[in-house]
Amino acid sequence: MYLIGKEEVDAVRKVIESGQLFRYRGGEGGETDGFEEEFAAKIRTEHTLAVTSGTAALICGLAGMGIGPGDEVIVPAYTFMATALAPLAVGAVPVIAEIDESLTLDPANLERKITPRTKAVIPVHMLGLPCDMETIGRIARDHGIRVLEDCCQAVGGSYGSKRLGSLGDAGAFSFNQFKIITCGEGGALTTNNNVLYERAMIYHDGGCVFRKHAEEMGIPFYAGSNFRMNEILSTILRVQLKRLDGIIEGLRREKRVMMEELCDEVAFSPNPINDPEGECATTLSLLLESRDDSRAFIDLITKKGIGASSPIDSGRHVYRNWEPILHKRGAHHPEYDPYRLTDSPPEYSPDMCPRTLSILERTVCIPTNPTRTAEQTQTIIQGIKQAAQQIAGKT
Ligand SMILES: *Cc1c(COP(=O)(O)O)cnc(C)c1O
To answer: How far from each other are the two terminal CA atoms of the chain, in whole angstroms?
Structure first.
C-alpha cells in the first residue's frame, strides 16, 4: 500500500545511528525480536519468524513441516507463482487445483487432487479474501495433510474469530512493496507448532547452531540457509504494524459504501466471500456473465479514469503463465530437480483448470484505497453504476 512516512524515517535513522543492523549481534531485545513479538500478538500465534520475503516464509514453512522429495503440495491455480515455487525449493512438487467464485482454492477440487503422496496444501487468501478454512481444515484433517496458509496478500484479515495465519499449521506473510504493509521486501512465518518453528528457524539461519538461543532448541541442527531479517527492515515493519488496523479499517469503510450502493446492479454480482467480515477489503471484485461483458465493462470504467482490471490479465498470478512449472524445470541442476525425484510427477497443461480461467476472465477487480475522500469514492461508484447500466442495457 506504501503508506509510509516520517515515523519510519525516524525509526530507520535511530537504528543506523545505533550501529546495530544485524539481528543476532547484541543479544535479546532488538528490533527484529520486537517485531516478531508484536506480530505474533497481532496474529495470535505462539511464534513468528521474521524472514526476507513471502517466498522465504513459504519455503521455511514447508521445510518446517519436513516436506521434501517425493511429496506433493497442492496450490491454487490463481496465486503469485511463488506459492508454487516454494514446494520445489524444498524438493517437493506443486499440484495445481481449481479456485471457485470466491477467487480462492475450491475445497472440492482440493479433495479430488489429493493422492497418497500429498503432504500439504497451501490455501492462498488472494486479494485479502479468506479461503474456506473450515472445509479446507476438515479435508486436511481427514487426509492427514498439513496446511500452510499463504497470507501474503491478507495481513490483518481474519476468518471467524481467528486471524488469517493462525488457522493452519503455519502462515506465510509478505511485506514487499505491493502488499498491505511493507518494508520494501520482507516476510514472516507464523505458527503454534514448536517443532515446525525450530525446523524453520534452522532453515532460515545456517548459523543457528552458533547463536545464543541454540542451546534452548530441542531438535538436531541440520544444514540451513540464510533468510535472516535485519534491524532496519524490522524497525520499519514495527511502525507499519501500528498503521495496519487503520489501513484495514479505511479499506473496509470504502468497500462497505461501494457494496451498499452497487448491490442492486444486475450487470454483475460481487464474488462471494468466505468471511465478509474478515476480508481485508483491498479489492472490489465483481463477477460478470461473460468474458465479453467483463471486457466491455473494464473498457467503460477505465475510460472514466477508474482503475480496473481482470485477474485473467494479471500474468504472473495465473497458472498457465508459470513457465518454469509448466515445463517442469524444477531446479538449477537436473539431479536436484524435484520432478526427477518423484516416481510420478504431476501432469500440467495450460488448459488444466478451465473453471479457474472462466471465473478469472469474468471477474473485474477494482482496487480500494484507504486515503480516498468520500467524494472520490462517490465518483468511482457513479462511474461503475453508469458502466453497469450500459452493460445491462445491451443484453
Ligand atoms: C507476494 C506474494 C508472494 C511472495 O511474496 P514475496 O515477498 O514477493 O516473496 C507469495 N504469494 C502471494 C499470494 C503473493 O501475493
So the answer is: 37
CA distance 79 to 103: 9
Q: Which atom of ligand 1 is nearest to the CA of 53?
A: 7
Kind of pairing, strands 268-270 and 187-191? unpaired
357-361: Cβ within 8 A, 24+ apart: 357/312, 357/318, 357/320, 359/99, 359/100, 359/101, 359/103, 359/287, 360/78, 360/99, 360/103, 360/310, 360/311, 360/312, 360/318, 361/291, 361/294, 361/310, 361/312
Nearest Cα to 342, choosing from 161, 122, 116? 116
Sign of the Cα torsion 31, 9, 82, 148 reads: positive
Residue with cell 473496509: 252
Instruction: Tell me which residue of 130, 201, 127 sits closest to 168, measured CA to CA.
Output: 130
> Helix, strand, or coil here: 265?
coil
Cβ-contact 178, 127 below 8 angstroms? no
The per-residue pLDDT for range 362-386, each reduced to its tens digit, is 999 999 999 999 999 999 999 999 9
pLDDT, averaged across the chain: 96
80 lines ligand 1 (CB under 6 A): yes
* CA 294 to mean position of chain CA atoms: 25
Closest C-alpha to 47, from 193, 264, 231: 193
Give the model confidence (pLDDT) of 8-65 as tens digits. 999 999 999 999 999 997 666 799 999 999 999 999 999 999 999 999 999 999 999 9
For cell 525450530, what's the residue? Answer: 198
Cell of 26: 547484541
Which stretches of 122-169 are assigned E, i.e. beta strand?
A: 146-150, 158-159, 162-163
Ligand 1, from 1, 51, 53, 55: best to mutate by most atoms within 8 Å of Cβ? 55
Around 274, how many Cα atoms within 13 Å sit in the side-chain half-sphere?
Answer: 28
Q: Is there an atom of ligand 1 within 6 Å of 124 CB?
A: yes
Neighbours of 367 (CB within 10 A): 14
CA 92 to chain centre: 20
Ligand 1 center to 291 CA (angstroms): 27
Q: What is the pLDDT of residue 25?
A: 79
Q: Are 175 and 182 in contact (CB under 8 A)?
A: yes
